[in-house]
Amino acid sequence: QILCKDCDGLSGRPEDAFQDFTQSFLDHPDRNNKGHQRISIPCQSDQIILAILAILLKYSFSDRHPHIHIGQKYEKIISTAILSGSPPKEYGRNFEIVFMGSNSYFVSKDSTERDLSRIGRAQVLGGRTGRYHTYFIQPPGTWVAIKVGNVPWHPIASKERAHPNNEHIVVYTTPFEKSILHEDMLSGAVKRFKWIEQQSKERAKRHHT
Asked: Which of 35, 184, 15, 45 is nearest to 103 (CA)?
């Protein structure tokens, strides 16, 4: 059985647990340290794994995100898992999830401090990578990598994946300046500056004609 697009209520509990998990990571005091870290967040790992797979399923259903298409086989596996309330038995083979994050990075402007690492990206990114699919979800301060496909993942990623039936999940944390979020912000800023420069040139051209 494959869940319909309107069955959001069934994934509500895992997604609530994932929000709590993300907030616990954001508030963890070790995020104020520097360097690479392994931050362990207490949680029911089954619920967090289910939440990530449920988010991926929603994007796979959506016509607005054609680059996210995991296929009916995996949609059915995830649907069955959500209905059962437990991660799929195929987890660790067909699905693997790694949680990564960023240390805090505060900037001050007009006497107000802001943690840039808390900026999140709502949509799912990624697609086919060789013989399997890799997707990324970017909640605030974190990014979650998901492998879909019956092909071994990179050995390091497989070693670091979240495990079901655990009382915690480890978030592999890096300095903000070396994080994916920082790279995205830099590339976004470059694009915005180029757009502003182009608009300025066009205004100048119109002014002289």
From this structure: 35
Q: Give pLDDT, residue 125.
A: 83
DSSP structure class, residue 138: E
Which two structure tokens, joined as six digits, stand for 168? Answer: 């915690």
| Cα 139 to Cα 22, 123, 196, distances in angstroms | 7, 9, 28
pTM for this prediction: 0.81
What's residue 63's pLDDT?
A: 81
Phi, psi of 89 (to 5 degrees): -65, -20
Nearest to 14 by CA among 62, 63, 52: 52
Residue 149 DSSP symbol: S
- Cα 130 to chain centroid, rounded: 20
Q: Are 98 and 92 in contact (CB under 8 A)?
A: no
Residue 143, H or E segment: strand 142-148
